[in-house]
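B., you asked whether I could sanity-check this one before it goes into the benchmark set. Here's the sequence:
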Amino acid sequence: MKSKGIKNLLIDLGGVLINLDRQRCMESFKKLGFTDVEERLNIQQLHGIFMQQEKGLITSADFRNEIRDMMGKTVSDKQIDAAWNSFLVDIPAYKLDLLLKLRTKYVVYLLSNTNEIHWKWACQHAFPYRTFRVEDYFEKTYLSYEMHMIKPEAEIFKAVIEDAGIEPQETLFIDDSELNCKAAEGLGISTYTAKAGEDWSHLFKSK
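And here's what the prediction gave me:
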């Protein structure tokens, strides 16, 4: 561990635990007939319906209706969900093993900008492993759409610190966004910016 005195881990979901495939998502929407999806949707930048969805300001039903309006055609909820969830690939087994191991030494929390559709898919398809389910990996999950806040807003970090009753200086935050990490650092939290799909287990290997 690079930082001494760390007792708590805040771990991001997308890019840090779960592998993402933006191109596959775009192609899936195109197959549905959403021909200008690249221009209409920028899923890497949180704005419009994506920010509203991740902040929990609109429901999943509202999101699907917005997608149908953008497409200008009738497609089912199931088809929209399948295309949207094709953005998510998997959580490698070694990362699930690592989470279980880390729980024996640290208090582990999930802090993710996510939405209801993606979260339900992850709980059903990405986290189940051997006999384990999502609640076995974390002390608590902090999800943007439930909290009505998103990273890099300082408020979301303050809310987690207060709710979990943890000290910032005893906490390491692992995220794939430099912006999110800078926001956490501003509150005294140690951070590590992971590259997409990186094996960051080296952080916990003794020298």
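One thing to flag: The chain has a mean pLDDT of 93. Otherwise nothing jumped out at me.
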